[in-house]
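ok so i was messing around last nite and threw this chain in just to see what happens. nothing serious, just curious
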Amino acid sequence: MRWDNLKATGGPGTGDTGQARVLPLALPGAVARTFDTPEFRGVTFYEVQAKSLVNRVPGTSRVPFEWTINPYRGCSHACVYCLTGDTSILMADGTTRPLAELAVGDEVVGTVRDGRLRRYVTTRVLAHWSTVKPAHRVTLADGTTLVASGDHRFLSDRGWKHVTGARHGRSRRPHLTTANRLTGFGALPERPAESPEYRRGYLCGFVNGDGHVGPVADEASRRAQRYAAECGGLHAMAADDREYAGASVRDASAVLDWPEVPTRAWRQGFVAGLFDAVGALVDGMPRFHAVDKVVVDWLVECLAVLGFATDRSGRPASGVDDVGLDGVRVLGSTRERVRFGLLFAPAAATGTAVGDLVRGDETLRVTAIEPLGVEVPMFDITTGTGDFIANGVVSHNCFARNTHTYLDLDAGHDFDTQIVVKVNAGEVLRRELSSKRWSGAHIAMGTNVDCYQRAEGRYQLMRDILAVLRDHANPFSILTKGTLIARDLDLLQQAREVTSVSISMSVGFLDETLWSSVEPGTPSPRRRLDVVRRLTDAGLSVGVLMAPILPGLTDTPEAIDATVAALASAGAAGIVPLALHLRPGAREWYQAWLAREHPRLGPRYQELYGDGSYTPQAYQRELAARVRLAARRHGVPTGGTGTTRMPSTSGGTGVDAGDAHPADQSKHSGGQATRTTGRASHTDERAAHEQLSLL
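result:
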């Protein structure tokens, strides 16, 4: 159901705040509007004049309804995690690049679980975007600083932590304190510029290491040859000679001899040139074979001044009195190897972090978290692993959902912050339902994007939509996680008097800690239960789609019993349990979250899902049986079998025909409520019910 055939040009949209501007590249003819309020900071609303509102579901779909209404595309429930654009990101080739300069397709370093540990791997940038957020500065013991939004997360010794949070109330979430240590390398140095001093240092190291600036087909020789041509008119060196052709003694001496006062750039170049001439990675760390003891002394001094410890106790090379191949070894582990490659920038590869274990130590302890009191431009990316290395520490990223690509917007940040609003929804719906061609079919809402997301609080499209459905006595159903539905209680009651109204609230579990991790932008389960109770007390029948039930997390008999008990207490008219199903987009999001938060469950999920989207029907039947037993104990009806193909509910709302609440007078035929208000009835004979993706 692509939006392309529904949008129309023109119309300034609605609302009297914010500044409107036309952005034809995203949605031709739309008006983009932003609002200077905390709940919508960083969100752009594309206000469009829709040609039509009622969408027909493709015949290949297995859902038990034929018509839907989606007044919004994209979802403002979601969270945004951002860093400043100058944050250094570790690339897969061992270099760094500012976050603002990354592009989709770039390869960076991320991490994956390996048992109880975590390893660095190469991953690809899937999305890249910018926004403006209030800034916080996080300072570490080694001097590393990171400027990020309060919502951003870093991997600490106690798991993923937001920059800011609270221990109680609505802002409660895991957050950094000065008791935490982050994981990664710590501050990463910038690569040296190819200044004259660096070039001279490089030539000194390269030539004193018996490197040759002749026509040799490798990057080090080409670099040295280029540097020689740029340094005082020096030319290429003969293959078996340490004299420069065409160079004066003075010019050659200025390159080959140790300077009286070596600069930092000269030292960096010297180490790089010597490594390119006689260096290699041995057991994962840089080692040098030097020509003579004087050069070795120079090398050790340079490394010490630049913060590297060395060992000179290696075995001498055969026939050489001085220190041999193993004689000068850089000490340390992955952090020092990565720093070595960045600080000296030799032409020869020094290896990246890929494959090594992710660690942290006391140098990465958080020493301060400070709000800066300003909003600054920030950037974020989506990667294949769900994380990346920012200023040397492991940083969480935002995840993509696939459906927003239908709008030619990206499925990552755009899904959360580029919300399409069909501002003329009520007007268009009234025209469509008045048409003689309209059969009066059941209309399902909330099937793709939540129609009661936060944006509805400002645009209030649902009030017009409900009024039109009431006036035309058109049956409808609503599936939501949003508590805003309680605002429209009056219209729901009025519609219930003239047509079939089916309402379902999605409540998969009660665990507030798990909710804040999996569904951080939605109302809490307790608040949703309060809405179920309020609507029920007002005489409406509210079913509950107990979804998603998360294998290994919320599918135990104890967790299910607690959830069902709470649903029964809130007055749920019926419960339909659905196991988590993982479509592309949601699948990548959830798998990365699971690997990060619950790695022990990886094998279980591989067993259940393999490469598919659904759990085996045997597991689904077992899950449904647990819910039925709990429901009998607590006196609440259940619907369906819990499998991907089961008797469908009224409009897909979660109450099975055989267990409908007495107040629900609708009839059921193949999963559609039969209309009884005078117009020809419409039924859907397909009984297939597809698990809904509710992430």
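not much to say yet. The radius of gyration is 32 Å.
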